[in-house]
């Protein structure tokens, strides 16, 4: 064709050109994101970014991991430049493990290729939408969770190979004409990929807890299902690519090189007519997005402030659930390897419950060998930690046998402390009323919208009136909690709860909890105890007993 040049201008930039004889013209990456027009096509991708950021917040990252999740990469980073960063992370992990840094392994090279392909999805979008940088943060966190751990490397390698084969690469953007349908297909590919990365990060970062997650959520095939969804999106993109109306590559446009001037003039005329419309759409979208964001922020602030005020009524100066869990987690349990839940056989019973008796509340009991702690509390902590990062799951918990190190026991609050004040030696133990208050406070913290939607049920006046009545505080909790889907309630060592003359643990608290778990299909109730379940609720529960002592006097080692 000689050295004819095809140049079409869009906003003053060249879309494609042919500068050398025989060279294949290429489409500019700028075509894939046109300001003021394309935001609607990439909405699924931006929503995936928001969900990824929300997932990272649920992981409660440590400082070094938080730094990785907020990588501020240069906008012009190119695929092929990520390997050096991965090697840097490997050296950091080797240094922490006091190991000599090894050369880049085959896994690192494979992961770098995978990361290059993922980065190709967002390279054209980052200059316009910086929020896509979360992709790199998740990639680096995933690599950090897996590298130098051979079993995890092997488990991840097979997954990234399948995903890599389904991702478009840099050349894809240069040779495929960016129709609106193709842009939407790319956005869906990106969204599916981010869902896989999110799940993979939670899975491999919480490697030890995955057995519990799989049993509690029946989650064994989740990654496989997400990869299958990616396969569907990939096939849809391939069909668009092969269709005649979008199979317009740079080679096809070569035939109009002799009419370059005419095409350019037509395009410029069209561009001048649509420029104002595009700018107006972008401005309108920006204003609407800003207004929506501000409105949501104000609503969330007011709901959170109101929820915090109600929590203060419930707990006074008591530590909140997060502080309590952190303190319990820091406790060093005296457990031999055979007493730990990973090794004592309880996971098999969990799997049996999950597959056959999923709708029944669970009662876990047992004890450990001499001079050992009761193993069920260690497992309760891990159940909570395993469930908290999961999307669309709410976890409420209480530790009845936990003695806090710095809990307020004075009368500084107008509301009775959730912990018992009598007898003096047991003033840190939870009472039935205190336990329900703690659950209700957590519920309002995680779902502050409930107090707004059901202000007739939950308000300061009603909470103050119900502060000393188990039936009243339970009625408030029950009316709110049944509105939450996929809810887990974990009560550890319920046998450590202390009743009084008016409210009994066996007579009031346990039956109320069990009845709630039985009636609501959205609530999974997990109770742990040193003892067997009481006989009057035994037939409504799925009991799991595991005793690791060498000599056992009875099935549960004792009763109430």
Descriptive keywords:
DUF7708, 560 residues, coiled coil, 7 strands, two-stranded antiparallel sheet, DUF7708 domain-containing protein, five-stranded parallel sheet, 20 helices, mainly alpha, 3 domains, Rossmann fold
The proportion of residues forming helix, as a percent range, comes to 40-55%
Structural class: mainly alpha
**Gyration radius, rounded:** 29 Å
Mean pLDDT: 78
| Overall CATH class of the largest domain | Alpha Beta
The end-to-end distance, rounded to whole angstroms, is: 92 Å
Number of strands: 7
Stretches where pLDDT is under 50 for at least 5 consecutive residues are 1-24, 72-76, 249-258, 406-426, 551-557
The CATH homologous superfamily of the largest domain? P-loop containing nucleotide triphosphate hydrolases
Specify the number of helices.
Answer: 20
Q: Shape from CA axes?
A: globular
InterPro entries: DUF7708
Pfam families: DUF7708
Keywords: Coiled coil
Organism: Podospora fimiseda
Task: Summarize the topology.
Blueprint: E1 9-10, E2 13-14, H1 43-58, H2 63-69, H3 83-96, H4 106-122, H5 134-146, H6 150-164, H7 170-175, H8 180-205, H9 210-217, H10 222-242, H11 260-315, H12 321-330, H13 346-356, E3 362-365, H14 375-387, E4 394-399, H15 432-446, H16 449-453, H17 460-465, H18 470-481, E5 487-492, H19 505-519, E6 523-529, H20 535-538, E7 542-545
Parallel strand pairs: 3-6, 3-7, 4-5, 5-6
Antiparallel strand pairs: 1-2
């Amino acid at each position: 064709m000689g050295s004819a040049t095809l140049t079409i201008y869009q906003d003053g930039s060249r879309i494609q050109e042919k500068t050398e004889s025989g060279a294949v013209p290429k489409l500019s990456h700028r075509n894939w994101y046109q300001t003021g027009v394309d935001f609607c096509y990439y909405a699924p991708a931006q929503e995936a970014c928001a969900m990824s950021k929300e997932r990272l917040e649920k992981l409660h990252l440590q400082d070094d991991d938080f730094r990785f999740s907020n990588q501020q990469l240069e906008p012009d980073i190119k695929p092929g430049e990520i390997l050096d960063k991965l090697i840097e992370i490997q050296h950091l992990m080797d240094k922490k493990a006091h190991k000599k840094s090894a050369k880049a392994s085959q896994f690192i090279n494979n992961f770098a290729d995978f990361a290059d392909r993922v980065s190709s999805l967002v390279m054209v979008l980052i200059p316009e939408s910086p929020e896509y940088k979360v992709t790199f943060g998740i990639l680096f966190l995933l690599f950090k969770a897996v590298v130098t751990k051979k079993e995890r490397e092997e488990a991840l390698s097979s997954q990234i190979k399948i995903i890599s084969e389904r991702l478009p690469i840099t050349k894809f953007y240069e040779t495929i004409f960016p129709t609106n349908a193709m842009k939407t297909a790319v956005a869906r590919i990106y969204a599916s990929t981010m869902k896989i990365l999110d799940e993979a990060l939670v899975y491999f970062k919480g490697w030890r807890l995955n057995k519990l997650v799989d049993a509690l959520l029946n989650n064994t095939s989740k990654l496989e299902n997400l990869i299958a969804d990616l396969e569907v999106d990939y096939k849809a993109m391939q069909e668009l690519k092969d269709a005649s109306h979008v199979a317009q590559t740079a080679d096809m446009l070569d035939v109009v090189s002799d009419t370059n001037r005419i095409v350019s003039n037509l395009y410029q005329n069209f561009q001048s007519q649509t420029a104002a419309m595009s700018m107006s759409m972008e401005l309108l979208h920006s204003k609407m997005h800003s207004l929506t964001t501000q409105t949501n922020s104000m609503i969330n602030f007011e709901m959170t402030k109101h929820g915090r005020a109600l929590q203060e009524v419930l707990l006074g100066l008591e530590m909140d659930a997060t502080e309590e869990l952190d303190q319990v987690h820091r406790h060093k349990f005296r457990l031999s390897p055979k007493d730990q839940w990973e090794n004592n056989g309880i996971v098999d019973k969990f799997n049996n419950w999950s597959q056959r008796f999923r709708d029944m509340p669970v009662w876990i009991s047992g004890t450990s060998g001499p001079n050992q702690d009761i193993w069920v509390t260690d497992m309760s902590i891990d159940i909570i930690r395993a469930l908290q990062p999961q999307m669309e799951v709410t976890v409420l918990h209480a530790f009845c046998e936990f003695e806090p190190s710095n809990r307020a026991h004075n009368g500084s609050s107008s509301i009775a402390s959730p912990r018992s004040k009598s007898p003096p030696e047991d003033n840190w133990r939870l009472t039935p009323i205190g336990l329900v208050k703690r659950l209700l406070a957590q519920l309002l913290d995680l779902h502050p919208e409930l107090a707004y939607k059901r202000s007739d049920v939950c308000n300061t006046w009603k909470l103050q009136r119900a502060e000393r009545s188990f039936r009243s505080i339970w009625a408030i909790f029950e009316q709110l909690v049944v509105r939450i889907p996929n809810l887990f309630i974990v009560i550890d060592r319920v046998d450590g709860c202390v009743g009084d003359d008016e409210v009994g643990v066996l007579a009031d608290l346990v039956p109320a909890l069990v009845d709630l778990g039985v009636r609501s299909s959205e609530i999974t109730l997990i109770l742990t105890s040193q003892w067997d379940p009481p006989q009057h609720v035994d037939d409504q529960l799925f009991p799991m007993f595991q005793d690791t002592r060498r000599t056992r006097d009875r099935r549960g080692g004792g009763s109430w």
